[in-house]
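question for whoever is on the cluster today: can someone run the full assembly for these? three chains, 1289 residues total. i dont have access anymore since they changed the login thing
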Amino acid sequence: MNATGYGWLVLGAPLVGMLIIALGWRVLPGRSAGWLGSASIGISFLASVGMLIELVDRPEESRALVGTAYTYVETAGFRADLSILVDPLSVFMCLVVSGVSFLIHLYSISYMTSDQGFARFFAYLNFFVFSMLLLILAANFVLLLVGWAFVGAASYLLISFWYRRGTATAAGIKAFVINVIGDVGLVIGAFLLFDATGALDYASIFAAAPEVFARNDAQLVGACLMILVGAFAKSAQLPLHTWLPDAMEGPTPVSALIHAATMVTAGVYLIARCHPLFELAPIAADVSAILGTATLIFAASVAMTATDLKRVIAYSTMSQIGYMILGVSVAAYGAGLFHLMTHAFFKALLFMGAGSVIAAMGGIQSLDRMGGFRKAMPFTFVTFTIGALALAGFPLFAGFFSKDEILAYALERGGGYAVLGIVGYIAALLTAFYAGRMVFRVFFGLSVPEADELAKGHLAHGSHANPATGEEEDTDVGFPGSEHHVAEREWPMKLAMAPLALLAVVAGVLGIPGVTETLEHFLEPTFEDSRFAEVHPTAAAEWVGLAAGGLVAIIGLGAAFLYFMRDPGRRVATRERFAGVHRVLINKWYFDEIFDHAIVRPVAASGRFGRSVVESAFVQGVLVGGTVGVVRAGTSLARSIQTGELRSYAALLLVGVSALILYFLIVSS
Amino acid sequence: MNTSWFVVLSAFIFCVGATGVMSRRSPLVVLLCLELMLNAGNLALVAFARMLGNEEGQIFALIVVVVAACEVVIGLGIIVGMFRRRLPIDVDQMTELRG
Amino acid sequence: MPTVHLSIVVFLPLAAAVLAAFLPARVGRWLVVAATVGVLGYAVAMIADYEPGTTGLKYVTDDNWISELGVRYQLGVDGLNLFLIALTALLWVPSTIWGALRSGSGARAIDDRAALLPPERPRLFMFHMALAETAVLGAFCAQDLALFVVFFDLMLVPFYFLIGGWGEGDRVRATTAFVIYTLVGSLLMLAGAIALGVLSAGDAEVSFSFAVLEQRTLGEGTQQWIFCLFAAAFLVKAPLFPLHGWVVDTYRATPVAVLVLLSAVLSKVGVYGFLRIVLPILPDASAYFQDLMLVLAVVSILYGSVLAFSQSEPRLVVAYSSIAQLGFVVLGIFSLTDIGAQGALMQMVNHGLVVGPLFFIIAVLTARAGGSPTLEQMGGMALRAPVLAALFLVITLATLAMPGSPNFVGEILILFGAFEDKFVFGVIGAVGVALAAVYMIRVFQLSMHNRVGPGAEPGEARVLELVAIAPVTLVVVALGVYPQLVLDRTEGATAAKVQPAATVAGGQPTGAQDEAAEVAP
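^ ran it for u. tokens below:
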């Protein structure tokens, strides 16, 4: 089978899996829906490997293959085929997505075992992976939009998976609406490109772009900014980021898959894919870099004070995606994508570990209630710590190589980018701090009752209340079962977390500067047309950057150690001293409130205004009432002749006939 | 005989009938007056037939007689029905067809 | 494939209904259902027989009707009405089935709720449904302006009886307002049609046939006031802001089976009229009024969307959403571009396909919520109703034009058409897309998710309900996978219709003289 054949298999396997589970869930025995779902993603991963092998076999120049199924839309100059693009970038993304998805499917088999909606979960999960792969493999903007929107829909379904909870459904709508805003931006961007180049597929647009657009051409900048709207909505960057923390309402595997490893990286992928356009419109690339940096420091600051464990990890994701966006915006494509891969590994790992901890806590997610799980959950402790160290960029872990490479690039480009790089280092300090915060608060310190019980061998049962609001749960369909599952006891969960932990440690080997630059070389064919292909920090410069990063990580972890281990009282004292700052951070810099007042309320008010004033007064009153009134008046005038009295009819008849006769008599004479 | 006398007589009977229709309250009398008007028309038709010497007027008068008979049947049927239902036999009170 | 005699297609339902009037009610109503299925079969055969890229009319029926007035009995099918006929045929089937239902043996208490009762006086109900189908099919197939006007006005009669006789709530007032409003527009259109036929003839023989009218030219001033007359009728039918006042009361009062037809099919006759009559025959006026129409379209989109998500009854949400969707269609038509018109035609078909199952689902939900039509009473209906929830989700996502649905294809074509010359209008339209997502997901969520509402009893969709909902949903999904099916066949026709107006809008005159120039020697 050739590369595109493998590509169709990559897409087909999850789709078929979803259909089988969705249509046949009543007949599938026991937990086989989960195994079936995992198997289909496994097939997808193997097919991705097949794609990789096929692609590597080919010479470097011809590593961009397009396979077309049929013409999707073709009319009046608008043409979009159902075609997939197999090149190093898409193969790389497919491998990461399908690989991590497979492990998360395995994890979910035991994590969701006692959930009533088990089959539904795996159908949705397979649908999501299919959508993500479609997004990655699409060869034109229309198919990209289809994958883009499907991913948004899958995200909505999975976030509001426990749909009996008001908080979950509200979070789902929020994510969906922000996603649709991104879709609209993408449509406008696609049009601006179509208008100038007459085509919608990547190959034609990227080939025509240098001829059609001058540097920083207004239309191109507009198109790129619209693409950024889409990318930022999907990747939860400022200012379209408010949906991501709320999305933690979904089950933990969903957070691991969608909101760490795959969906939120779609924006990064898109910018990398459209790099010829962004390089022709540096203004847009700069906007992207600045906003990405703003996000990464904003999110890191909020993560320092958030009390919900999953939300800390969510903000951490936001922050790390900011790094990736910064990376691909300063043309450090290899570095940015390398960080995408390592981030997928350690972030998924962190979420899985968090899931385990939350299960041990019986569903409670608040950091304030956790502590001392080190002895009760050794496996989770080890894997979580590995993930946290990778996140912090501790020397020699995967994050160390990937994150600091981006910053080295930024510094190399100089000028304003160096400033962004410095900000990145500051944020790295905060990152290390909050990573340590998580580890120390959850696993060290005084043991909470749940931990003691678990150490004795008894797993806490979940309560029937929504942990966020305390609202009484409806314990029917769609409720997380009261049975929870920790990694120590479930071998599928261990089987899923172990490879990720391993990768979080050794994946750095793919990008050691000056030694092995496997990933960059692999991705080269896609990015060789980049104007910055030659801009490359020297190995020495990179090692300096790495060293700085490692130092920052160690300082951050050390500070966390001091704060949370040595002197617990200091934490409370600092919070009181910087109460104002703390309040701003706890309230996420009030972004939610700003959007509520600026957008949501005015729109709702205009709806009410429309209903009460325009509808009732103007339309109903004047237009309809007016027309009907006029007609009614006319007819009642006519009606007044119909008295129903025989004699008046007779009189009228007589008078009328006489008048007619008289008329004709007079006229004829 | 001068045809004019017949036409004048016909007009006179017609007017008597018309006045009766417009001024009487009992539907039976109204029907009667309607018969008067119809027969006045018959008279005029026959007079003109005799004046012109052909039968067309007479044939037409026969048709009018038939139509009058049918109409009286229906009218009387309605009045009998009203009587049976004990409705007031008064033209001024029969206003169900008011618009 | 022998020629399909279009008269059969048009009059089959009426013939069946007349026949059914003499049969006992039990048999008669299924005869009418069979006739609608027959029409559907014909429609599918016509689609299969239609070669992509054909231009011109097929299956033409051309007979003398009132030769003194120049009115001919002309029917024909081309890319423009092919799929609208199919839409009509497709949607009439579940509506008549729904209307022909009997409460089967062992009906449980929940089936007695309003949505699922069989209608009283079934034969009369079926007669009116069949008459309505004949009228609508006639309006779509007509190739003569006078014939079109006849069928257009005829459409109103059965709907008057259907809503007034079998409706709910304040039905008499609602249907009176609806009929008066539409009739005023229709009468204006009649005047315009007569004027068009007579004035365009000049010295030649008066003719109302579309083909002949398209060849003749009219002065610009004449075109403009005739345009206004036609627009009055079509905008009321569509409906578009501000002529949409009849919508709220009528949508509340109409029984479900009829509402589906009203919203899905009847509204399309109006915008079809724009494409078939106004744009090709009055090109200068179309170009002149382009901006005004675009403003009306965009205002409708925003107004409809904003009002849609402040409603508490799902029927009204869909009602306002229809205003917005038809605003999109008019946006596409009056972008006066090929691509926009293609999108508009596609969207006409899509909206019809989507709105049908939507109303049926809402009727089911209303029945489950104890007959109360408000969203507060519903909630958590997805419990133990996976099939219903899945169908509702698919339809909801299609309505909000999520990429992957055919509605997305229609909308992106419309937007691309609007963006070409009227970028700002397009952007405002795009905002409407985002708003659509909000109100549709809101309805889905408030009825299906969260806690079970106060009066609600969730339950899976019954077989008969699925018969009405599932097939059309499958058609929507199929079109989403292969939208080229529609686009291939409509391209030639829409291009021909838009081209005269597009040339005028682009700055070249089509040959219509200014009225002042006519007077000058």
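summary bc i know u wont read the tokens: The first strand of chain A starts at residue 65 and ends at 75. The mean pLDDT of chain A is 85.
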